[in-house]
Amino acid sequence: xxxxxKELTKSDVEFIEGxxxxxxxxxxxxxxxxxxxxxxxxxxxxxxxxxxxxQGAAGILRGHDMNLNQSISAVTAADNVSLxxxxxxxxxxxxxxxxxxxxxxxxxxxxIKSDNTSAFLLISNKVEGNVTTLLDWxxxxxxxxxxxGLWGFVSLLFNRK
Length: 161
Hints:
Elements: E1 2-9, E2 12-24, E3 27-39, E4 42-54, E5 57-69, E6 72-84, E7 87-100, E8 103-135, H1 137-158
């Protein structure tokens, strides 16, 4: 469906495309548009200029400016990302990521501003605020060396003829 402005409530849609999209309490397979607002929505793929998700779940989010509030996203990729009480196993940002009381697996950005956020691995030029990380660059390098050594050893054992 192609629409300039579209508002959906309590529906199940395969694909929706438009300039201004507002969806509430629905499931959508794919959303593409300029300004996308989602409230209590489950979506597989969301692609837009400005994306705002409140209490939603998404597989892949791509855009310019992204705001997740009490939401879950498998992969979040944007120029600027804002996470508030959200979970994202992979959050990649070209410019800035702002995270407040969120949990992130891999967080990568030029600049990260954080308030009581947890991350498995954090990659950034500049970090401001309180971030709890499981791995820093030294422990990530050591963990990679251990897994590489184990992989090589197991490969040697199974390649014997």
